[in-house]
Amino acid sequence: MNRLTTKGVTLVELIIAVTLLALLASAILPFGRMTAKRTKEIELRRNLRTIRLAIDDYKKAYDKAVEQKKIIVTLQASGYPKTLELLVEGEDFGGLYGAKRKFLRRIPPDPMNPAKPGQPPQWGMRSYVDQPDATSWGKEDVFDVYSLSDEVAIDGSNYKDW
Fold first, then answer.
1. At residue 116, does pLDDT exceed 90?
2. Domain residue spans in the chain?
3. Where are the transmembrane segments (predicted)?
């Protein structure tokens, strides 16, 4: 018997292999983009929760200082921080804690609306007297924060409505 032994791959086998790889790649790329978007959404939720908890903790500390008569309440004061930076710099609340109490180490970034290099993180803010869906900040205090991104989330909601 005369057997012909071949080494290598035929053109048909090569075309089939390349086609299969192209199909797999076309399925994996959108999945990778979706995974990256989902990761950024998780980070946005975490950062919003962190800032909102810090704002609430500031308000609780303010109320405690008022209750213990460490500070005098003024008519316009809501008890919320005047700026986000105040959460990082700290407040002493009339000596309630003996030193400035800091509520954040740094202001977390908005992953859906990244700041330019050298700029602080940019968040949309609402004051206590603003409407719940206001898009402009009254600048009296910081009652809530939201993303400035106009993009739509995976679930169909807008990031700025979170």
1. no
2. 31-161
3. 12-32
